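Data deposition worksheet. Section B asks for the primary sequence of the deposited chain exactly as it was used as input, without tags or linkers unless they were present during the calculation. Section C holds the resulting structure in token form. Section D is free text for depositor observations; keep each observation to a single sentence. Incomplete worksheets are returned to the depositor.
Section A, Depositor: J.P.
Section B:
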Amino acid sequence: MIELIPAIDIIDGKCVRLTKGDYDTKTVYGDPVDMAKMFADKGFERLHVVDLDGAKSKHIVNIKALNDITSNTPLTVDFGGGIKTDDDINKAFDNGASMVTIGSVAISAPDLFIGWLDRYGADKIILGADVRNGKISINGWKDDSDTSLVPFLARYVEHGVKKVLCTEISRDGMMNGTAVDLYSQIMATYPTLHLIASGGVSKAEDIYELNRRGIPAVVFGKSIYEGKIELDQLVSWSKQR
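Section C:
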């Protein structure tokens, strides 16, 4: 059964969603803690939290929001955005994150990323693979690298990565369906990988299709906030199978 992971993106301490990672498309949906409590009350166990200010600023900014969420809910939280240094990653774990999602550092400082992987373990480090036009994007999707997805994954799977969060940026926030063929290709190459699909979920059927394709997990956000998914029904489905 696919793991269901609602998402909270944070700017200025508020829960927001963007379209294709464009900060000019920001829509504010309220208080992150209130949203997290709602997800916990609905029966979710996991939460994906992104510090968008941190991703843009290249250091963690919204650490208080992370601490407030982890202090006030039982959710297992993975946190990303702005984690560039030892101080950043320690700050995330010290404020309640159970896992961290790292993307930019894996491009800009691979030895540092591998060091974190060795130090904290593959269960706590999620490799962020944000893809635009086949290349890995970094720094809150503001910059495109010269690294293609396949060699990027191959390098870090070889170093022991077990969890990958892959976002097809062109679909993020568009609610026009997921890049299910891309995710299926990744799973065909790395069948034991805990792949977390992200971007494009528009309705529950998108999640059902990912489940049928054997994708281990999915992150979704805008479809929740726009009322396109009935959460009680989705959680009930996930627990019955």
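Section D:
The first strand starts at residue 3 and ends at 11.
The mean pLDDT is 92.
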